[in-house]
Amino acid sequence: MVRGLLWILAAILLGGIVHLSTVLAMPQAAKQDAYSRLAPLTPVNAMVPLAPTKAGVEIMPFMDPAFATAVCRYDLTTGPLKLIAPVSQAYTSVTFYTRRSVAYYAINDRAAGRRTIELDLMTAAQHAEVPEDEEVTAADRLIIESPTTMGLIVLRALAPEPGLMPMARGALAAAKCGIQSQQ
């Protein structure tokens, strides 16, 4: 009896280990991750509005049709990136992802407290090279450190009613992201 329970416990433990390692390995093994799906649609270091979401034909899974979406696929090897995103009337959010779809930073219009979300994205090495300016405070200049040199910035604007979607898409169309020397 005890021996049978030990075998069952061992089988459950082994099944749990296999399940956990499979779940953790799937993002690395996936061929059609977000970055790969968006690569043919978006140039590097440029903000591109995505087509409106329709049921069954989303570019990415689980996209909400009440949100207008724009994406910037970034590469920081040539220098830091500058993001300027006007805020829509309802709600605007900016989320940063690594090349492997790990979210590492997010900000919305309420947290930004301004009519424009403006920030600099750079690696830790690039941030170390930025000269300290005593007149520029942390509140004046938001610097985000990216854990990787490549990734995605996803900008979303809410259209609370279908008739307000042009307003949300207009806010995203005015967003810019590019290498700081190009701005």
Supply the helix-strand structural class. alpha+beta
**Number of separate helices:** 5
In spatial order, strands of the major sheet run: 1-2-8-4-5
Indicate the multimeric state.
single chain
Q: What fraction of the residues are assigned to beta strands by DSSP? A: 25-35%
Shape: globular
How would a crystallographer describe the biggest sheet?
5 strands, antiparallel
What number is the mean pLDDT? 85
- Radius of gyration (CA) equals 21 Å
Tally of DSSP β-strands: 9
Q: In sequence order, what are the helices and strands, one letter per element?
A: HHEEEEEHEHEEHE
What CATH architecture of the largest domain would you give?
A: Sandwich
N- to C-terminal distance: 73 Å
CATH topology name of the largest domain, in short, is: Immunoglobulin-like
Number of domains: 2
CATH class of the largest domain: Mainly Beta
Fraction of residues in helix: 25-40%
Which regions are unreliable across 5 or more consecutive residues at pLDDT < 50? none
